[in-house]
Specification:
The chain has one domain: HUPs (Rossmann fold, 3-Layer(aba) Sandwich). The protein has 4 helices and 5 strands; from the N terminus they run βαβαβαβαβ. By secondary structure, it is α/β, with parallel strands linked by helices. Helix 3 (about 80-90) runs parallel beside helix 4. It is globular. Strand 4 (about 90-95), helix 4 and strand 5 form a beta-alpha-beta unit.
């Protein structure tokens, strides 16, 4: 089985990656890091992972002794894309980061996070 992580190159994304690596190390499973972008997203989109970001992910996994695959996907709906990958790869766990940028965010989670919790075909770990 696989630990799937929805990766974006932000502090939240790095914390999700760390949690995925920790879980994969505990269970001796590979990770699959997926960077999902909406079509036509600008080059300066902070969610867009660069080659350097992917090199960082691979090095972090390698140094932890964990096999790692990386994918970039374009999709109108991030939830659908991650749910589809989780199902097709038979992921055991999906790891996602939650943003809490505003006070209300501490009480309500984002629509994408909520949809993933309700739709994922596997357990979901939120970081």
């Amino acid at each position: 089985m696989t630990v799937l992580v929805g990766f974006i190159p932000t502090p939240i994304g790095h914390r999700a990656l760390d949690a995925a690596l920790q879980e994969a190390g505990r269970t001796a499973e590979p990770i699959l890091a997926v960077n999902v972008l909406r079509p036509r997203s600008p080059q300066d989109d902070p969610r867009r992972a660069s080659d350097n970001d992917f090199a960082y992910v691979k090095e972090k996994a390698r140094s932890a002794g964990i096999r790692c695959e990386i994918r970039t996907l374009e999709a109108e709906d991030v939830t659908d894309a991650l749910v589809d990958v989780a199902a097709s790869e038979k992921a055991r766990l999906l790891v996602i980061g939650l943003r809490r940028e505003k006070a209300v965010g501490r009480h309500l989670m984002g629509a994408t996070s909520q949809a993933l919790l309700l739709s994922a075909p596997c357990d979901v770990l939120t970081v």
